[in-house]
Amino acid sequence: MHLSGWVGSVLSSFIGTWLIFDGTRAILLGSYVTPSSGRFAGQLGPWSHLIKAFGLDPMSMPVKLLHIITGIALLVAVAMLWSVPALGWWFMLGACILGMWYLPWGTVFLAIAIVLLLTPSMRAYKQQTTGTKSVRGMESLK
User: Fold this and answer.
1) For helices 3-29 and 85-98, what crossing angle results, to 10°?
2) DSSP codes, 31-45
3) Does any domain span residue 59?
4) In 3-state terms, what secondary structure has residue 71?
5) 57 FRET partner, CA 20 to 30 A, in 64, 72, 101, 137?
6) Would you state the pLDDT for residue 28?
7) Mean pLDDT, 10 residues at a time, over the chain (142 residues)?
8) What pLDDT is recorded for position 115?
9) How far apart are CA 84 and CA 126, in angstroms?
10) What gap in Å lies between CA 116 and CA 114, rounded to an integer?
């Protein structure tokens, strides 16, 4: 995979892992991770304002589950991109779009991942299929 795929995978995996961690923490302990000092101490991130604009309580169980589901979707998308490029590319694009609500870092990192997915090298990568990849040293067995 090209560098753009590596970078997009790392960014998506980071956000996905964080969303799973923070959503699980919120379910188990009752609160998300928030800054402990400074101007924003104890406040949720900008994503919470977007959630409120849709009439949802950021501390509600559906929103906590949204964190976890979005995180899982991102991690599954990364795995699919690496194992089944033709399908994984589309799943990765969808998962990145799904995670854009997580302002600001999710939006920034996943926007970068989307731009990288749309590069010519990644568009060519999605054309590969796992059935046509040869394993080093296995060519002589054909």
Assistant:
1) 50
2) S----SSSTTTT---
3) yes
4) helix
5) 72
6) 98
7) 93 98 98 92 95 97 98 98 94 97 97 96 78 45 44
8) 97
9) 8
10) 5
pLDDT for 134:
43
Specify the amino acid at residue 142: K
* The total number of structural domains that make up the chain: 1
CA distances from 9 to 67, 84, 109, 117 (A): 18, 14, 10, 10
Residue 141 domain flag = no
Contact 82, 88 (CB under 8 A): yes
Question: Is 86 part of a structural domain of the chain?
Answer: yes
Nearest 5 degrees, angle CA 102-CA 105-CA 108?
100
**DSSP 3-state helix, strand, coil percentages of the chain (rounded to 5)?**
70, 0, 30
Range of the domain at 61: 3-31+46-128
Q: Which amino acid is at 106?
A: G
CB 96 within 8 A of CB 77: yes
pLDDT value for 117: 96
Q: Taking the model in full, what pTM does it have?
A: 0.87
Residue 32: what residue type? Y
- DSSP state letters, 77-118: HHHHHHH-HHHHHHHHHHHHHHGGGSTTHHHHHHHHHHHHHT
